[in-house]
Amino acid sequence: MSHVSDLRPSVTIPDLQRLAAAGKKIVMITAYDAVTARIADAAKVDIMLVGDSVSNVCLGFDNSLPVTMAMMAHHLEAVARTRPRALLLVDMPYLSYHLGVEDTVRNAGDFMRRGAQGVKLEGGAKRVPVVRALVDAEIPVMGHLGLTPQSIHRMGGHKVQGKTGKAAVELLEDALRLQDAGCFSVLMEGIPAELAARVTEELEVPTIGIGAGAGCSGQVLVFHDIVGLTPDRPPKFVRAYMNAFEEIGAALARWGEDVREGSFPGPQESFTLPEEAREALKRWRPASPSNGEHQLAQDLALAPVK
Ligand code: KIV
After folding, report:
1. How far apart are CA 138 and CA 117, in angstroms?
2. Which of 151, 203, 246, 282 has the fewest CB neighbours in a 10 Å radius?
3. How far is the CA of 222 from the centre of ligand 1 (A)?
4. Intra-chain end-to-end CA distance of the chain, in Å
5. Is residue 264 a contact partner of residue 255, using CB atoms and an 8 Å limit?
6. What separation in Å is there between the alpha carbon of 8 and the centre of ligand 1?
C-alpha cells in the first residue's frame, strides 16, 4: 500500500494533488489532542483535521455550535505540538468566518500561527469572498459542502443533503465556485454517492468524502468513530474497526478489581527503599510530647537507637 507519508517527511498540498491525479486515495482523520494525533500519524494518514466535532466528540456538547476560537486553539496547539507528518488542518468554528472578511482572515491567521497548515470552513457560493481573502493571505482552504453540521438548525438535524435535482445541481455549482475561489480541496459530507462522484469528476481539486460514497478522491472519518469510542450508535457511514469503548472499559474494570483485592500495585509497580533510608526509619521514634515539636528527618536518622 502506498501512502503520501511514505514519500516525504511531511505531507504538502501539492503532494495531495499529485496523489489524487495519480488516482490514489487520500486518507484524512480527525485528531483532537496529542494522543489521537500521535496514533493517527503513526497510522500514516495524509491529512489530520482538528475538527469542530471536538465539541460533541470530546467536550460533551450536543453539536458543533458551542466551540469557540479559544477552544479550537487549545486543541490545535495540542495536536501541533506533536509535529505530525500529516498535513494539519483546523476547522473554523461557528461565527469565526461569518462576521466579515477581515475578522475571518484574522481568525484563520491566528490558527496558522499556532501550527495549522490550512483551514476548513462550511458553505458554498456565499463563502467565496472569505475564501478569496484567505487564499490571498496565503491560507490554504478546504471547503465543506452537503451536510454541514454548523447548519444543523436550518437543516432540521443531521440529514442527508443534495437529494433533489435543485439541491444536487446547487451543490455541484457550489463546489465549482469554491474551486474557482481558490479552495485546494472540497469536502462533501452526507450526500448521495452518485452526486459526490459527479462533483469529483467535474472538479480539478481533490474531493474528500464522509458519508459521500467511494467516488471521492479521499475519505475522512472521526477518529473516535473508527475505533468505537463513541458511546452513541455511530451514523450509517461509519465503519468501526474495534470497540475501544468496551475494550478500554474492560481494562479499567480489571484494574479496579486488582486495586480492590489488593493485587495492585505489586512489587514490579513499586519502588524499593534504599538500605540507608530503611535503617533511618527503623531508628525513628515519635518526638517527645513534652517539647511538642516535630524533628527534622536528618535529626531522626542520627538519633541513637534505644
Ligand atoms: O469536524 C469534523 O469532524 C468534520 C468532519 C467532516 C470530518 O468536519
Report:
1. 10
2. 282
3. 7
4. 74
5. yes
6. 25
Q: Where in the chain is the domain with CATH 3.20.20.60?
A: 4-239
Nearest to 141 by CA among 202, 92, 69: 92
Cell numbers for 306? 534505644
Q: What sign does the CA torsion over 224, 228, 221, 241 have?
A: positive
**What's the confidence (pLDDT) of residue 230?**
87
- Average pLDDT by stretches of 10, the chain with 306 residues: 54 97 97 98 98 97 97 98 98 98 98 98 98 98 98 94 98 98 98 98 98 98 96 90 97 98 98 98 88 53 48
**What is the fold, at CATH topology level, of the domain defined by 4-239?**
TIM Barrel (3.20.20)
Ligand 1-lining residues (CB < 6 angstroms): 30, 49, 51-53, 91, 187, 189, 210, 220, 222
**Are the C-beta atoms of residues 50 and 32 closer than 8 Å to each other?**
yes
Whether 27 and 3 have beta carbons less than 8 Å apart is answered as yes
Q: What is the model's pTM?
A: 0.90
